[in-house]
Amino acid sequence: MAKTIIISNRLPVQLQISKEGITALPSVGGLATGMKSVHSGGDSVWIGWSGLTDEEIPEGKEKEIDKALAGHGSLQVPLSKEEVDGFYFGFSNRTVWPLFHYFLEYAEFELKNWEIYRDVNQKFADVVLEHSEDGDTIWVHDYQLMLLPDMIREKRPEVTIGFFLHIPFPSFEIFRTLPWRKEILMGLLGSDLIGFHTYDYERHFLSSVRRLTGIEVSYNEIYADNRIVRVDSFPMGIDYKKWHQAALKHDSPKSSEQSDLQKRLDSHRELTPEGKLLLSIDRLDYTKGIAKRLHAFKYFLDKYPEYKEKVRLIILAVPSRANVPQYQLLKSEVDELVGRINGEFATVSWTPIWYFYRSVPFENLIDLYTSSDIAWLTPIRDGMNLVAKEYIASRTDQTGVLILSEMAGAANEMNEALLINPNNFEQIADTIYQAINMPIEEQQARNSLLQNRLERYNVEKWANDFMTSLKSVPSKGVANITLLLKGQVWDNLMSKYQISHQRLFFLDYDGTLTGFRNDPQHAEPDGHLLELLDRLSEPEENTVYLISGRDKETFQKWFGRKKYNMIVEHGVWISENGEEFRMMEQMKKDWMDKIRPVLESFVDRTPGTFIEEKNFSLAWHYRQTDPDFGNKRATELKTVLTSLIGTDNISILSGNKVVEIKSGNVNKGRACTQVLARGQYDFVFAIGDDTTDEFMFQELPENTFTVKVGREKTNARYFVENNRKVRDLLAGFLNI
Ligand code: ADP
Ligand code: G6P
Fold first, then answer.
1. Probe ligand 1: pick from 167, 365, 380, 407, max atoms within 8 Å of CB?
2. Domain ranges within the chain, ordered by starting residue
3. Residue whose CA is closest, atom 8 of ligand 1?
């Protein structure tokens, strides 16, 4: 039976090893709760690292651990200390984590760590492969496992793979600094669906794919060989009910047993009834801006001294990744700052900061959320920030103010919070002042909107939305057309070829018979291609036309001696059996002098672009410029041209990284139909990769074998993945 496999670095259970034996307790983390609906019953398994290195596991206990984990539907990938050092502390947390959070100066590029990261990803993949079969759905989580999707896909192409990144995806300018950037992208592209918290992360990822791989991206779809990879944003929610109900229970008079922490919080309130509690909760991580927050707090006390002895800041920092030097440095910095500020401002009855460096149980988090007047969360960069959502969910009477950094993913959905720039101390101080003085009605109005949204888009909905979307990605990319080089479709094509007597071929050149080069002037045919074309043209039954947008001079130079039939400049010129080129259509060219200066101005403003001048057309090529910039300029150019040409009989064609302006309504479709009308053919075949080839696909009769190279939207009936496969196709006709 098809099953669901969830993979994350950390398992949703925590191991406890004692003298009595080994137990696995379910973890209360957001991911584990969110995935409950997905990870239920016997048709799902969660694969991950147990959190202990091989060296830490008592000898002979391995089986016991496996058994304890199996009780929770979990399976471990055992890792040695060396692997954890290189993979987890090393590449994941000393390279990817800082880089993806824009801490470029902290990112280390160690080849050894990269190699271990790759090997450990392979280790995860091996466990997944061992426990999966075709038809399974696989969901991979987070930055520790970015190579996994492709590693699984390679061995098991028929599974459905989703990937979700829980941290930001940085802008191209940052991502490009990673020496293994392409490997990471290709690893991720093994997925069918890639999810991010926000649209910005999605946009950054698509831009990196476009710029670094050259793979075609259309809106949020990536055409990777024969598959569509869909990219989308799914902002992760929390288990709203859990937090809200725990808070309700906490507030109810029945709750007689108070924690020590709650007693301390209550006594603070009794001693300073007008006092305000500010709460800051994070993992002790430099991305969370804890040190900056402390400086900002001092700034606030200096700017608004009337709040001395009235406002208290509670800082709860969870120990995290303590083997990484930056985290150790941060720990000393925060310790020192807390000491300094308390030393400077404390009075006999008031310590401005209460600082806890530990993980606390769920009940204490509820104590803190329900007792704090203000939650103050100022990450410098944060993928989402769930604490912000948990605070709001726990405010059962809808009072409380959330001050949130605009650099947190959560800020996108939490507009009603007070959003601040964590670097702007002036703004922060004023915002704390605003929060302290915010009328209750305003607090409730803001929080009620926030709560409605958090309740609706909770973590279960997040997981279900992702799974629904994953299942709806067109299976292996097949949308409206069929992959040609396989099974029955292929056999049918070959047998039609065999039994037919008059065959007509239209073969596009650039991107079809040959790949794109950065310099289009040097895209001469290679020996292998010429041999294929010779042999295809050889049988009497075959009439082969090369059909291209290129100018006749270039084709004459490249193919003149071969006597192939050629249609060039999109159907302006034709040459058959080695004769001189003649015009297929009557053309005007007086418009060219008016349009050329416009194109020249675009060349001046868009480095890397150039004009190709053909006999009856002008083409502006932008393959060598930045892809986003090029697309933007192309749209601009088309708008300018459309208004310029008015009613003149001139057409604008958008090709693959080229905008071409031509006389009349010449196109490859018209040219093909003219040729077709001259003979009696029982087998017609047309192949091309470009939008300009769509004219052929549209105009040729329905029973034509129309073939698109690549997986973009098309009017063709079939597709092949890339131009290398075109050669296999031609070789197939020739039985070689
Ligand atoms: P990150 O995933 O980067 O650590 P989030 O804010 O998204 O940041 O998630 C942190 C999670 O850790 C929250 O679910 C929060 O409840 C929990 N948490 C934060 N501080 C503590 C703590 N001191 N003890 C226990 N859990 C904590
Ligand atoms: C972030 C990451 C998670 C990670 C968590 C705790 O939320 O996105 O993948 O599990 O931090 O970090 P740790 O290194 O302790 O797993």
1. 365
2. 4-233, 240-464, 482-585+666-734, 592-662
3. 385
